[in-house]
Design brief:
It contains 2 helices and 3 strands. The chain has about 90 residues and is α+β, with helices and mostly antiparallel strands. The chain starts with a strand and ends with a helix.
C-alpha cells in the first residue's frame, strides 16, 4: 500500500469506540485499501488507513471517519440518556 493516513482520537471512551469499530475491521470492505484500529493507552483510539491510490484512500477515509463519528455520537446519546434517567 502506497498511501497512508493515521488519526489519533483522544477521548474518555476510546475503549467503547474501539469495540464498536472492531467488527468492521474483520470485514474486507474495500479491495484497494485496508484499515487498522487499536488503542494507545486508556484514552486514545488510533485509526490507520492504507490504500493503493489516493482515490481509494479518500473513499476509505470517508467511510471510516464516518463510522468513528457515528460511534462517538451514539456513545454521547447513550451517556445523555443514562444521565437523564438518573
Amino acid at each position: 500500500m502506497e498511501h497512508e493516513a493515521v488519526f489519533h482520537f483522544r477521548c474518555a471512551h476510546a475503549e467503547i469506540l474501539y469495540r464498536a469499530l472492531s467488527p468492521e475491521m474483520a470485514a474486507e470492505l474495500h479491495p484497494r485499501s485496508r484499515a487498522e484500529c487499536y488503542r494507545e493507552g486508556p484514552d486514545v483510539l488510533v485509526l490507520k488507513v492504507q490504500a493503493r491510490d489516493t482515490a481509494a484512500l479518500r473513499a476509505s477515509l470517508n467511510m471510516w471517519l464516518r463510522l468513528v463519528n457515528v460511534a462517538d455520537e451514539m456513545q454521547a446519546l447513550a451517556y445523555q440518556s443514562s444521565e437523564e434517567r438518573s
